[in-house]
Amino acid sequence: MYDSSLRRRALIVLHSCISTLGVMSGAFQKETRALMAPMLKSWLEQFALILSPPVPVEDPDDWSLRMEALKCLQQIVHNFSKLASTEFPVVLGPLWQTFVSGYKAYDSACVNAEEESFGGLADSDGSEQSLEAFTIQIFEFLLTAVASPRFRKIVQNMEELVYYTIGYMQMTEEQEQTWSADPNQYVADEDDVTFSCRVSGILLLEELVENFEDKALQAIVDAVQKRLIEANQAKSAGRKNWWKLREAAVLAVGSIAGNLFEVQAGGSMSFRLEPFLDNIREEDLGQGVGECPFLRGRALWAAAKFAPAINKARSEQFFYAAVMGLASDVPAPIKIGACRALAELFPSVDSSILQPHLGIVFASLGALLQEASDETLHLILETLQSALKADNQASAAAESSISPLVLNVWAKNVADPFISIDALETLEAIKEVPTCLEPLVARVLPVLATIFANTHQQPAGMIAAALDLLTMLLKKAPKDLVRRTHDITFLPVVSIVLRSDDNSELQNATETLSAFVREGGEELLTWSGDPTRSLQMLLDAAGRLLNPELESSSALFVGGFITALILNLSSNMAPHFSPLITALLARMRGSEMIALKTSIIIVIARLVHMSAPNVAQFVDMVASLPVDYDALEYLMSEWAKLQGDIQGSYKLKLSTTALALLLDCGHPQLSRINVQGHLLTNTTGIVTRSRSKVAPIQYSTMALPAKLLSLLADTLLEIQDQRTSAPDEDDEWDEIDEDEDESKSSGVSAVPGSEKSVFKALDDMQHLYEEDIEDGDYQEDPVAASDPINQINLSVHLRHFLKQFLAKDPSTSERLFQELNPRQKAAVQAAVA
Fold first, then answer.
1. Disordered: where is this region (predicted)?
2. What gap in Å lies between CA 293 and CA 358, rounded to an integer?
3. Fewer CB under 10 Å: which end of the chain, C or N?
């Protein structure tokens, strides 16, 4: 018999071989199966021998050997599931023996520290050999098996599997000590997917629920009840770590809270949420402040998880407990749980209950802000945002103490994008409180003035962050406040656009100028005393951003800035439209960034709408631009190619309706242009780079009007697909069979034709897919909220247009129609039927 070390090395080599064969099976399925089939049975028998004995304590060599056997099994299940399914029963018993006996060793060594767990022990190659690393590998295998359609049937006694999983989810002695000493690490480990048995256990429970649904949920709640009883028995027996089992049980049920809400509503389970919540409130939140802090914190965490399903009376009871959890003498784990609970409970507690306590909450959160760091800052700021939205009167009273603290957090953490964004959102929450805007601006403007007066002396990231803060203040601000802000910051912001080479600074400064123009309007030009000079500064800024020599990412938001100029300063901008379009096209030609090019197309689409009903004049203007290339041909060729890359329902509506206007105008200049048409290369499967080199993708050429009609038809098809097909994750890969190893081989215009503005004709139409307007569109493009184009039902609009267009000139329409592919023809025919 060879020693454990040599056997383990052999298994490492075997694992590498199986992994390599698994990769090769994608192209050589028959060959790899032929290699694997004769050896698989004997391998599984050897794995069974390794896994059969009970897991010993204080034996890293044995743990490491089992770990490598589990890794080999995981590769077999992942890559050769069909081949292994018939022979696999030989290893099921030993696997279960390892799982069950491993829990006893884990509970003794890791949870209760009665034995040595060899935490951090590694071999000469750096591979960890600790008991926890071995246990995590067990869960890795189980996760792979449960996710496999062929192997999830090995889960016979689900309640037992869940029962032991909850045991494995107990807090280890090392975690307890680490988290007690460093609350920041506790929050980080709770929020991030860390390498631990607790996380692996949660992932397994979620995978079971995903695949077994109600059966798994019932098994989980039954196992939780058993573990809660055992924890009470351990407490009665005087075991010091009794609370760890109870905490793990609460963690388990809270991790599937969302799924429990659904089955609770259907009444298909014996589990009742109310008694469970009452139990943890009475048992865990009724203890002394310093007793079992992690359990008390977990009870408050559970209140946050179940907040959507808690009635008002229980919400108030948990709210009181959470407020007490913020007291200065309370251990950090309880404060963390209290923050999580409050953030979720504020919306469901009446103002009459909130108001007497919000002063204490703000004071406690303010104190925590001054001593927190990193992950805990995220949590406190999120809780503070919820508190500020809970009651305007209390928030206004706390502004003088909270604003300086949050502003200080923002200034200290501009280099950390996550914390600075949280702080900025908290300041925005203060801004939204009535009566808080004026005092907040009074605090922020001097800070911004100091930063912009000494831009070269600021730490990295400070200028970009200050611009973000300024933009936030400007959004939807009263005009008098916009003017006060303009007097102090407008010139420095323009200077940044004209002189800076930093991408973040240029992007944020562009957004700030857009906000100034949107909120200031025509009056903005008069505030400096010289409207001509003010307009020229804005045009100079636009010119710098549209310079093809400037890096594309620096000008990413120039489209929104130009749109703000032409919508809010339209009378002043009209004489500059021709050079503006010239600069826009030059920027497009000099960039390969799709996002930048599509943003410029949206600006062009806006200009098309503004030119209606005289769209032909816009076509003439583009065709006659003083450039050394065919500007109209370039613009329409790029627009036709990039229409499918335009993101967001509002922008899609804007671009599609503009294309309809261009098609409807029937300008001869458009008819002379030929663009990329239909795909010619007959390909099957996924086109890789190597395949595209052998057989390059080829397209036909088609007349621009026919291409515009085809794009409108494609939009109708897309809307139809959105309505009729449920969104599946990774639907690009739906051709893959569930047997992984087998599959590897195999100013807007009118409704076209009318003389009225679309603002009147389409005001009462619905949205793109007959759904509510997406909030995200408002965030990406603030114009969307007030633009009637965003109110249209695009499907209705296109059907209406196509009926008018095809009837207007039947012979031309028939010629264009014949250039469509069969699906596009069917879509057009259905639209006009």
1. 722-753
2. 23
3. N
Percentage, residues of the chain above pLDDT 70 = 89
Residue 774: pLDDT above 60?
no
Angle at 464 between CA 495 and CA 535, to 5 degrees: 30
Using one digit for the tens of pLDDT, what is the confidence trace for 221-271? 999 999 999 999 999 999 999 999 999 999 999 999 988 887 776 666 667
| Spatial distance between the Cα atoms of 540 and 580, rounded to a whole number of angstroms | 11
Dist. CA 224–CA 276, nearest whole Å? 10
d(CA 799, CA 820): 17
Q: Which residues pair with 701 in a beta bridge?
A: 676
What is the rounded CA–CA span in Å between residue 441 and residue 488? Answer: 12
The per-residue DSSP string of 643-698 comes to GGG--SHHHHHHHHHHHHHHHHH--HHHHT-EEEEEE-S---S---HHHHHHS---
What values do phi and psi take at 120, rounded to 5? 85, -5
The pLDDT tens digits of the residues spanning 752-765 come to 333 333 333 333 33
407 contacts: CB under 8 Å, gap ≥ 6: 423, 427, 443, 444, 447
Q: Is the four-CA dihedral 734, 739, 740, 742 of positive or negative sign?
A: negative
Q: What per-residue confidence (pLDDT) applies to 479?
A: 95
Q: Which pLDDT score, from 0 to 100, does residue 288 have? A: 65
| Angstrom distance (rounded) from CA 600 to CA 562 | 9
704/636 Cα distance (integer angstroms) = 8
Which residue shows structure tokens 């975690």? 175
Using DSSP, state whether 828 is helix, strand or coil: helix
Q: Which residue has the tokens 């469509």?
A: 820
Burial class (CB in 10 A: 0-12, 13-18, 19+), 256: buried
For residue range 131-146, list pLDDT tens digits in order: 999 999 999 999 999 9
Asked if 99 and 141 touch (Cβ cutoff 8 Å), the reply is no
Paired tokens of 777: 């569109």
CA distance linking residue 524 with residue 791, whole number of Å: 29
pLDDT at residue 266 in the model: 62
Q: Which DSSP string do the residues of 153-208 spell out, in sequence order?
A: GG---HHHHHHHHHHHTSPPHHHHHHHHH-HHHHHHHHHS--SSHHHHHHHHHHHH
Half-sphere exposure of 489 (CA within 13 A, CB side): 29
